[in-house]
Structure formats: C-alpha cells, structure tokens
Amino acid sequence: MKIKTKKQLNLPQLIEWAWDNDVRGKMFPTDQNQEAGIYIATNRDFMMSNADYIKYSNTFTVEAEEEITEDTVVSKLMTTFKKTYLEGGIGYQRVRIDENYPIKLMLNKAEAHREPIETLHIVNDDGTHTLIWRDGKLVE
Residue 130 is part of which domain span? Predict the structure, then answer.
C-alpha cells in the first residue's frame, strides 16, 4: 500500500529530501511565512524567494508518498485494540502509541499476548491519523 503523508522538515532536511526525490521546479514556502521560502529550480539549484534570509528554525511542509508493508518502521504508530467487556456490560478499549515501531512487531506481540488488534494508524506530524491496517490486513 502507498500512502501520502505530510512531513515538517527543517532546511537541511528539505534539501536532502528534495535531492533524494529529484524535486524540480517547485516552491516550498516556510510554515512561518507563506510569502518566503525556497524555490528548487528545474536544474535542482536552490533559491530563496521573497526573503532576506531563511532561519534555521524555519520549517517546510512537504507531501511524501511512501510504500507501507508489515516490515515498515513507523515513526508514530497508534494501535487500537478490540473492545473488552467487563461484568455488567461495561466496556473499554485500549489505545497505544509507540515511536519508531515496526508494524510486524506490533502484530506479533499482540498475537502472543492474545490482544486482538482492531486498527493500526500512522500519526502524522500535524496530529492527524492515517489508517493503515484493519480486518487482519493492510488497507488497500
């Protein structure tokens, strides 16, 4: 499965990401000032746009597409477990968030501890979630 996620990068990370992904002819405004940013030319040169300078603390939001498999290590993995019912019909559902965690390891641990998983989500940098696993398999 392939998913698109938004990532916040600082300037060195943006440059590395742009080179790794052969980005050309695209403007990346800073998250702090939408009128200032970095333009990556078609020849892969970098230029500042509408700014006297870019601060090291500036961040840039990019949309990245990545292939997700059970071997993928997720920077923030949210797991929801199937609802458990107590006497009297009171139910609760456990939710867990792990950092830098492989999907396969979570699935194996849940099975070993007999804790059925309902869903797995990637927690994006902006706090939103992307559903990646349910009904016993990766989402198509």
Answer: 73-138
